[in-house]
Amino acid sequence: MRHRRAGVHLSRPTAHRKALFSNLVAALLTNERIQTTDAKAKETRRLAERTITWARRVGDILTKKADRRTPDESARVVHAVRMARRILRDRVAVSKLFDDLAPRYLDRRGGYTRIVKIGQRPGDAAPMSLLELIPDDTVKSASPGGKSDKGAAGAPAEGKAKAKEKKTAAPKAEGAAEGGGRKKASAAKAEGATAKTPAKKKAKKEE
What we know:
This protein has helices at residues 14-31, 38-57, 59-62, 71-85, 91-104, 136-142, 146-206; strands at residues 33-37, 113-120, 127-133. By secondary structure, the chain is mostly helical. The protein has a domain at 14-134: CATH 3.90.1030.10. The longest helix is centred in the last third of the chain and has 61 residues, at 146-206. The radius of gyration is 37 Å and the shape is globular.
């Protein structure tokens, strides 16, 4: 039984396996999307979620300037960076984690990544997956401020509906105006015809 033995071995030595997953997590945080096998994607997601959580917990402190932080807050940031560096060995990935990703997922409690299966790899038919970070638009819609975004998006839709109603109503009004003009013209012609007939009859009588 494998009690309290989390993770997969992947038939690799310990040093090789740690370096592999460190590079995969760094690539995921840097590029926000990687393509790998299902087994590697699941293990990479477990490590990436843990790493992002360390940065998210100090996200409110990272919004402050370094000289505005208290000694306790500075110690918390240093501790979070050191815990993230246990997995990440890339300085660029660490800086992006604490500068960009931590504020992005500040209002999200877990679930920072998603796995999409994309079929089999040519050659050995290994099941492949696309591991990516949740984009900004999904995070904003899931956050409490997403309601205001939906309201703002709904306003233009209502405006478009009203504009369509105006456009459909305008041709009807124009048609009605044209119909009224035609009726007036026909009425004027009829009046002219009735006015001309008595004059012709009078001329015939005089003859």
